[in-house]
Amino acid sequence: MNEAQNPPESDNSQENSSTESRDFIREIVAADLASGKHGGRVQTRFPPEPNGYLHIGHAKSICLNFGVAEENEGGRCNLRFDDTNPAKEEQEFVESIEEDLRWLGFDWGQRIFFASDYFEQLYEYALELIRRGLAYVDSLGAEEIREHRGTLTEPGKNSPYRERSVEENLDLFARMRAGEFEDGAHVLRAKIDMSSPHIVMRDPTLYRIRRAHHHRTGDAWCIYPMYDFTHCLSDSIEEITHSLCTLEFENHRPLYDWVLDALETPCHPQQIEFARLNLAFTLLSKRKLMRLVTDGLVDGWDDPRMPTISGLRRRGYTPEAIRAFCDLIGVAKRDSLVEMTPLENAVREHLNRIAPRYMAVLRPLKVIIDNYPEGQVEEFEAINNPEDPQAGTRKVPFSKELFIEQDDFREEAPNRKYFRLAPGREIRLRYAYFITCTSFVKNEMGEVIEVHCSYDPESRGGSSPDGRRVRGTSHWVSAAHAVPAQVRLYDRLFTKPNPNEVEEGGDFTDNLNPASLELLTECMVEPNLRGLEAESRVQFERQGYFCVDRDSSSERPVFNRTVSLRDSWAKIEKALMG
Ligand code: ATP
Ligand code: MG
After folding, report:
1. Which end of the chain is more exposed for a tag (fewer CB within 10 A), N or C?
2. What number of H helices and E strands is found in the chain?
3. How far apart are the CA of 409 and the centre of ligand 2, in A?
């Protein structure tokens, strides 16, 4: 099922979204506000773990968390780094996450927090659990703990250390913190129920000994709290009302609630799960994206083929398009696979409105207009954006020698429906003249290298002088004025809708699309495309939307194709996805 085929009904839901809810989460929030459940407050948080760059799946969670806060008066959304896992987290990721969030257009003001800032408080909470007889230090090894846990069909077994006294537990836990024991010698566990049908409730580990340098707390700690203990308490410390997370945490909710009920905490936030975004032909797992980066299978986290926010940005996506996509797919309770098409349509739709048009020839073929005066240059006025009258016009130089696309010429017109250039055929050069092909020249390899034409001086500006019809229009660039450019054409990173589907013994990298990047180095673009700032987004007429890459120089601009004008994948995708 494609969620995108069932977009939420109205677009004007923004205005009155607190009364008319767009999804089940907004309904819950509205009902809670009405009943005064959380004291009439709405406080959400976006809690990334700084162990990679943000991806489009995170954007869904960001739009939801910040969106719900924004839509409700006095609502707030915290940015909280969930940094309890010292080995995998880095400052680079913290910075990239902040940058991507800001670029997406979200503002957390002063409300930025780190779970690691709560380490001391969390430790105090752990001591309190011990004092209440609700936690104990276990000295079984990791393997034994696993064996004792049981299975879905068999209950677990109590650890022989489960009945340690409060005093002994307090003493051991303090010495764990003080660094008296080896990594793995002991753990702190909640004392819940080893035969609970919820496996997470079978005395889950709360703390482990781990001598690892932490990106913020340095070497201050050698014990680190586990996610399930940290997250609910961090939510409570920040007085979160609605803790929105993805479905894989549904099983953890009993533990989330248990910890908060077991302790005296500032408040008891409500965990609500929603389906994570799965996007066809790509992967949304930081671990796997990391693998692509570290194995050099892509050109960094911001490779324009990556589903990361920074990759989409370098590809030419706009924050508006990403947010529109998140709005369109909505939020649901069941898992689904969303096609690429709605994401691409979102960026097409936005760029169609804002991107200035230019002429760029990607695979040039020389055209010589034999009857055009040598050395003459005319300037034609071209419309910058037909969708935006404010965008105005620009001048494009025209001369005797031009480039057109190789694709716009054939040695022989295949049939009467072929409207491009061929011997004896007449076409329009956009904004300029009608030209008729008279002959062509080939090299030794049999490739056409030069096409000769005549032009009709009466068709100046590209309009018919006598009502005769010309069906084909080509874009072009004057050879004398052309700027050489490099263009990168991107395609799907993976060849399968679900790249995790692999042969036995294989892995997801087997499904990488070997043709995901096509580099065109011989492109010729109109002179107005020289010197544009990196990240400028443009349309190349008849081809697609492109974005100036930071690798550009003033002599040689580099463009990344964001998306083609039309969706050539829609049909293929339908077939592949069934
Ligand atoms: P990954 O598997 O990519 O590492 P994660 O869930 O471990 O994802 P976090 O940094 O912990 O990544 O996620 C921060 C927030 O973003 C969490 O609330 C998480 O549920 C949410 N999130 C992550 N991936 C998705 C997704 N594909 N769709 C929607 N929300 C997501
Ligand atoms: Mg995670």
Report:
1. C
2. 13, 27
3. 53
| Options 286, 315, 400, 420, the catalytic residue | 286
Ligand 2 centroid vs 49 CA: distance in angstroms?
6
Q: Give the distance (Å) from ligand 2 centre to CA of residue 475.
A: 48
Has 157 been annotated as catalytic? Answer: no
pLDDT in tens, 247-292: 999 999 999 999 999 999 999 999 999 999 999 999 999 999 999 9
Q: Which CATH class is domain 17-279?
A: alpha beta
- Per domain, the residue ranges of the chain are 17-279, 360-478, 485-576
**CA separation (Å) from 257 to 24, 260, 271?**
21, 5, 9
Q: Annotated catalytic, 286?
A: yes
Instruction: Please tell me the predicted confidence (pLDDT) of residue 569.
Output: 60
Give 42-67 pLDDT, tens digit per residue: 999 999 999 999 999 999 999 999 99
Identify each DSSP E strand in 352-480 by its residue range: 357-358, 360-361, 364-369, 378-383, 393-398, 401-405, 426-429, 434-442, 448-456, 473-474, 477-478
Please tell me if the domain spanning 17-279 has the same topology as the one spanning 360-478.
no
Q: Which of 149, 210, 276, 460 is catalytic?
A: 276
Active-site residue (options: 20, 49, 450, 573): 49
Domain 485-576 is classified in which CATH homologous superfamily?
Answer: Ribosomal Protein L25; Chain P (2.40.240.10)
